[in-house]
Amino acid sequence: MTIHLPDNPARADVLEARPTLWVNPAYRSGAINDKALPVRPDQVDDAQANWARIAPLLQTCFPELEASGGAIRSELIELTALRDALGYAGAAFGKVFVKADSALPVAGSIKARGGVYEVFVFAEQLATQEGLLGKHDDIRTLAGSEAKALFSTYTIAVGSTGNLGLSVGIAARALGFKATVHMSADAKAWKVERLTKLGVEVVQHQADYTVAVENARLVAEGDPSIYFVDDEQSRQLFLGYSVAAYELAEQLQSLGLAVDAQHPLFLYLPCGIGGAPGGVTYGAKKVFGDNVHCFFVEPVQSPCALVHMMSGSDELVSVYDVGLTNRTEADGMAVARMSAFVATVMRNMLAGVFTVADNDLFKWLSLAHSTQDIRLEPSASAGFAGPDFLVNHHTGKHFCQQQGIGNLEGATHVVWTTGGSFVPQEQYESFLQQAARL
Ligand SMILES: Cc1ncc(COP(=O)(O)O)c(C=O)c1O
What we know:
This protein is an alpha/beta fold. It has 17 helices and 11 strands. It folds into 2 domains: about 10-40 and about 75-105 and about 240-435, Rossmann fold; about 110-235, 3-Layer(aba) Sandwich (Rossmann fold).
């Protein structure tokens, strides 16, 4: 199918794969309270309660969570030297932080918030249903041999560009489930290797992410012993991610940083299929209301959320439909078609989407390394363009005016860095070399 995108200041840039900012004309205040949406704000609280309940089990399964009591949390790091290196030294940029999901324990990426959550919540449900876990029983029972014997009769399956597969595979194997990960052709060899070593079956498709997910779904449909983590539709993944907003609120509060009309909060979230950035956006809208503005960021050749949301179409529009290639080094974001579920929820809630060139991803990855020792993979560095787009780009300036934001000196920008700490040294060095060649 060929789609003609509507007239918009960003249209030509999108079609010619130049970095640009698109602002969502349907963005409106209070959108989270729309009763027609397929999720409800109180489900974020339920998800937070679920995380708290499974924490002791997480702590038992993953020794690295000993100090946090089983919580999977990341640091909020203020940019100092990196801020200067990025050209954000001036007061006009307000405060700039990194939310370092790149170093999240257990899975080394933002996918820990979704994949680990869904697998552990499923394990709890299954054990309850099978009479292995009573209402007042210790959740750590699920790390015992009886539970493992039950879990070993089930397979957890997922389609992935890499990191979701890692998080689901790691979580599944820790509880004794079998696990199958259907990988797209973009998946990096080290991610495949790591999973294989854990005893995860990896099915590599010579096709893109959408095809990998479709295959995984098909296999799961015919087999009741397979639990399919459906990245295109899963509410559990989405809600697992959403709880990150409470964590961020706590961190901002402990730094004495207000979020209000004079101090708006901007989140820059790398987007693949949209689950992770959509979930965080949803949670942030619940927690911060109209004073948070969330922007997705995508590679210039894979802006699936941008083209779909810009099209205004009810049918999903893919990047191929507008003549783009979906080719990018940012494997986590190499997705041609966004989740329909996320598109529905984001319709009036997402402030906009900007795009970035692959070369810039490597440049920012290298700067993050040399200035503040932050270890990123290419997908994870995409958000660094955010403050520049909001402060300097004509569309960003217009957006601020429309929102009644005079200037951004009181603003807090949070660049969500979504993965990187698990990247093997050799691969990481090749990223740095690639940056040096630019
Ligand atoms: C590092 C990284 N960032 C961002 C994303 C995007 O998440 P989603 O596909 O849920 O939009 C991914 C997805 O795998 C990822 O691996």
